[in-house]
Amino acid sequence: MKKESSRKRSSRDGMLFTRQRSAVAALVLGVLTDVAVSLLCLGFYNARSCFDLDVLLRHLSIREFDFFHTLHDFALLVAVRSVFVFGGIVLRAFQKNDEKFNSRALVVFGLATISWSFLLVKILAISESPEQLGFAGLWLTVVWTVVASAWMVAVWLLVLPSTRIWPLSNASAQATAEYSPLITNDAESAAVSKETASKGGVAKHMWRLVCYCRHAIHWFLLGFVFLLIYALARVAIPKFTGEVIATIVSSKSKEEGMQRLVSAVLKMTGLVAVSSIFGGLRGGCFTYASMIVNCRMRCDLFRSLMRQEIAFYDQTKTGEITSRLTSDCQTMATTVATNLNVFMRNGVMLLGSLGFMFSMSWHLTLVTFIAVPLVGFITKVYGAYYDDLSERTQKALADANHVAEQTLSTMRTVRSFACEDKETERFEGFVGETIHINKKKSVAYMFYTWLNEGCDNAILVGVLFYGGHLVLTEKMTADNLIAFLLYQMQLGENLYNLGYVFTGLMEAVGASRKVFDYMLREPKVANDGTLKPEVEGNIEFAEVTFAYPSRLNRKVLDGISFNVNAGETVALVGPSGGGKSTCVALLEHFYNLLGGAIRLDGVDISLIEHHFFHEKIALVAQEPVLYEGTVGENILYGFYGGSAEERQRLMEAAAKKANVHDFVMQMEKGYETNCGERGVQMSGGQKQRIAIARALVRNPAVLILDEATSALDTESEHIVQEAISEWCKERKTVIVIAHRLSTVEKADKILVISGGKVIQCGRHSELIKERGKLYHKLVNRQLLGIGDADASEDSPLAPVEGVVDETEDSTSEDTGSNGQ
């Protein structure tokens, strides 16, 4: 075994070494190719446009350097590129931290942007001798420099980060690290995979955001048509402005000057009117389209949330979900639609301005673009930093929303414990975190603005200087220079707005990550059953094993098995945490099982159609939830069958069974009475009875009562219990979790659950005789409030074997405790 393991390790080491050697060889070959092609291009820098060795050798001599007539600078760029690529190989061999290596790669990207800017400066210098623009070597060198610089950036940003070039002495350790993911535990792999998917690429998220615009594509297209007309009108305005200025300056006579001035002004007036009208139409179309996108995003997200399993809500803060559903969707839709508008408007105007600028002077146009690569580099660095801060801001806002939602929805509890200041402090803490993050945003924006403004002003000074030079050398007219300056200002505004688009999209990407995570998340409990069997109410738990997803290492149910026959009333009792409510949650198909099966009339509940299943099984929880709406709407919640008259009849019948009808009819608006948010307008007992009516209205085959009568007074409980008993005679199944003796003793079967197993089963009269066992202890401790020391043959427990009298029932109500 050891020999085989050693042989496999040696094989892996050999494969790793071969791969490392191939990667290094490929990069070295790339460097040599760069040097060879660059030198070859220099040899073509002559009037004959053919290779000349003497020209090449002259470019290798520093004495022959002339900035305006030779290309020695490009030879220096070749040397710098070679040093950086070889330096990357060496650094990758000793730098194991990917994050630090990627941060150094930005320096290389900065070098490439500087080299591209230098190209423009060099072309302008060479153009001082126009005949040199016809040398083939110049353009070959320019094209190859662009390609080679892009290759150098690709090596640092794409090739080297994905290539492991450790020193050979560490080959074995690297091989182990490389193959270790094959034996990584599933939970860890899933966590890494989830994090990677969550981060995703910026381009991928942007594409998803833009794809959402297809839901309002007709409005966007109409807006684009209006935008095109608006942009073309705006682009022509500087041209006529230049004509007006030229007319004022160069007119020979007053009459001729006035005539030309009026003509130019009338044209400008028409253009301004067209741009104003179509600008308004464009804005209206894009605004309406953004609302459509926003609504679609929210609906898609809410639809996805409705599909998620209960465990998702157990593990995810409600405030975080509502934050994604409200502020994040709003940010995404508004930002994308607005920036799409800004991008298209400024993009069209930019292209139009460039056309006019090139027609006036290509020299000045190159001057204008000298700083563009540098601005692009600054924008990339700023955008990545801003993206990270935006994501952190959204998380802090989600936390603040969670605190606000949690506090405002439980204001009675907050007030009763005088925790107003504490909750305020928690909320202010998360809001303070957003302020801290936005402080960093502000500082970053300040530096970004400084650099952008600096580049803009440098370009303006450069254009004025070089444009003045062109005018003085009679290569350009003064009026064209004025028009060019106006176009340059418009171009600068367009570029600035396009930079703002990038920043805005980064904010949308930061907000979109969690939203798309929720949208694309597949629920772990699939409610995709299709069967609609005849349901009588027979329930079977067969060797059911379960642990909550947040605590997979702790089994709540461990191979539990029991049967509930149709028409039986079965009580689940046991200590807190024993698994009673978990059985109910699994019967409702809230979670997937780890093992075993739960069947309804012999059919696995996961195979039964979702809506049909929950028509046949109704749950009344210990803490009922009522929604903002009328009493009638709450009773009929989730019940859609029959006509309006039939629904009204069934609602009133269910209300009477649950002892709701009488107190509702005493209210001024009857069943139209508003329950308030979360049923705040109703008492605890009223809410519980409405919840019971909501369960009975659908005439389920199985009714689950989780401490459902705990909030009722003795008379109401007696009436409801009688209604349930009558209902059970119709061959209906009832499962009860209760700690009141009056409820438990009437059950046809009592299941005592502890430690995830059924440890006792029988009727009350049978189990109470088993002295010393758990059920007897629960009766003493929890139901009657008597400790073990008082439990003797002569204790007041004696009547428990028969029917408990009214006093004992009252005692059990007052001293009962909640177990699950």
TrEMBL record:
GO terms for molecular function: ABC-type oligopeptide transporter activity; ATP binding; ATP hydrolysis activity. It holds the Pfam family ABC_membrane. It is a multi-pass membrane protein. Belongs to the ABC transporter superfamily. ABCB family. MHC peptide exporter (TC 3.A.1.209) subfamily. Keywords: ATP-binding, Membrane, Nucleotide-binding, Peptide transport, Protein transport, Translocase, Transmembrane, Transmembrane helix, Transport. It comes from Steinernema hermaphroditum. InterPro entries: AAA+_ATPase, ABC1_TM_dom, ABC1_TM_sf, ABC_transporter-like_ATP-bd, ABC_transporter-like_CS, P-loop_NTPase, Type_1_exporter. The chain crosses the membrane at residues 21-45, 74-94, 106-126, 138-160, 216-237, 348-372. The lineage of its organism: Eukaryota, Metazoa, Ecdysozoa, Nematoda, Chromadorea. Residues 789-820 are annotated as: Disordered. Its main location: membrane. This is Uncharacterized protein. Residues 803-812 have a biased composition (Acidic residues). GO terms for cellular component: endomembrane system; membrane.
